[in-house]
Structure formats: C-alpha cells, structure tokens
Amino acid sequence: MATAHRSGFVNIIGRPNVGKSTLMNALVGERMSIITNKPQTTRHRIIGIVSDDDYQVVFSDTPGFIKDPSYSMQESMNQFVSGTFVDGDVMVLVVDVNEEYDNDNPLFNRLSKVKVPLFLVLNKIDLVDEAALLNKIVEWKDKANFKEVIPISALHKTQTETLFQSILSYLPEGPVYYPKEQFTDRPERFFVSEIIREKLLTNYYQEIPYACEVVVDEFKVDPNPKKNLVRIHATIYAGRKSQKNIIIGKKGASIKQLGIDARKGIEAFLEKKVYLELFVKVRDNWRNDDKMLKHFGYKH
Ligand code: GDP
Ligand code: MG
Question: How many angstroms separate the alpha carbon of residue 155 from the centre of ligand 1?
Fold first, then answer.
C-alpha cells in the first residue's frame, strides 16, 4: 500500500535578521525572499511550497515582529505576524544563537498560547563553538513548550534537511493544497518588484530603501518565443521629493546603475532577457496613507 499523503502549513517566525528568509530559501530551494543583512526587508507574508509525491509542505515567511511600530505600514507588517499565531500546523521560532532574549519578553507569553507543535530553531551555529552551543540549548529548551530544539546554519544549509524531515513527521495526513510544481503563491511580477527593491537596498543608504515601494506596472512577455524576452515597466514610489532626487542621482547616474543591477537580477530569476524601464514618483508620506497602503497590498 502507498504511504499516506502528508501536508500542512508551517509558519516561520522570529525577530528581524535572525535568518528566517535564509532558512526558507534553504528549505524551498528557490531564491524567494530578499536576503540582505538589513532588517525589515520582508514586508509581506510569502509562502514557499515544497512538494514530493507523498507530501506537500507550505512554509510561510513572515516579516520580523517590530516592537514599536512607527508607521502604519509597520503595524500592517505586525498584523501579518499576528495572523501566524492562529493558523498553521507547525510553528517554527527562529532565533539567532548569539542573541539574548529576556524571559519576560512578551513573545514567550504569546508562545505559551500556541496550540500546534512548536519548534525552536537555533540559527547561525556556524558562528559559535560546540560548548557555547550546548549551553545555549540548555538555556533555551525550557523557555517555552518546544517539541523540538534544532540547531542549524541556514546560510550553510547545515541541519536544514534534518529540520525539514522533523517538521514533516509532525504534519497530518492531508490533501494537495497547491499544484505540485508550484513553489509559491506569488506571481512572477511580485518577485520582479522584490528584486528591484533588493537593489534599492544594496545601492542606496539609510532610509531611502525603506521609504520606497516598487510597483510593476507592466509585465509583457514578447509573443515571439525565440526572443525569450520580457518587457517590464516599474515605478518606484518615494515618500518625498528629496528622496526622488537621490534615487535618480546626478544626471540620472544612480537610477541607471539601479536599472542595470535590477535587470541582471531579474534576468537570472526569469531566465529570460529583460527590457526594464524604471520610473520614480513621489507619494508624500505614503507609509501613513491608507489609500496607498491598500494600493500596495498592505491593507485590504
Ligand atoms: P530575516 O530578517 O529573519 O528574514 O533574516 P535574513 O534571512 O534576511 O538574514 C539576515 C542576515 O543573517 C543575512 O545577512 C544572512 O546572510 C544572515 N544569516 C542567515 N542565516 C545565517 C547563518 O546560518 N549563519 C550566518 N553566519 N549568517 C546567517
Ligand atoms: Mg526576512
């Protein structure tokens, strides 16, 4: 007899910068989230699907929880995280093995209410020696009702397969939720806007990338398959005129470089040739503007 099909939803939560997106990429095996060393790069909830003949695991990567939200956008980001406390089959808390967490951190109170199996993933073990790691495991294992405590290095894919198999063993028998060849619920154009945003993060300083949103206005695949070409128009929305000027740069030099870097990233992702046109618009203070937040998909 064939083995039963297992499936379920696995939520990955944790502070910003602990390696949630890196872990998800390691598990899903696709370049799905922006990986940078800056916190708050993941603004939306993103799912990554891993399927085989006898299982389907749907991971969801959440923005890190922001303690004191200072923008309406950040409140929406926190709501994506709160949503993960009510659904799912397994919850995975990722922590950076080098970071301290006080026992009175409100997170632990919330974790005590989690009804599904809770995993603790101690990430970045490549940065500590074995003795320190053992101390950390002892320190952590009673902080909450963890079913499993698993040390990993998401970056080096150390123990990530073990983690995956262990998660799988906690999933119930269940149906196929998504077509087996699908690896995310987001369309290609979403990844295009994420790649452009990633290049904003690497090419500009300080608050510029955080003050901007990217929208793909047009995504046209050339009808001639021999050309293997996509034409893309994208708009970068800045929060102020001065930010727009910085993005464009002297004689357009900065946006030109941004366009080149983004195009290369998009071509690698789509495995197609890309014509990319970038526009910059100003939407004053969009991060506090309900209409713009709806337009950008932060609110419904
Ligand atoms: P997120 O905010 O929780 O999604 O964190 P990211 O996945 O964006 O990772 C934040 C930073 O930590 C990036 O610079 C990653 O390269 C780095 N990182 C993630 N996992 C590891 C790891 O296992 N070891 C080390 N040394 N760095 C890691
Ligand atoms: Mg992330």
Answer: 7
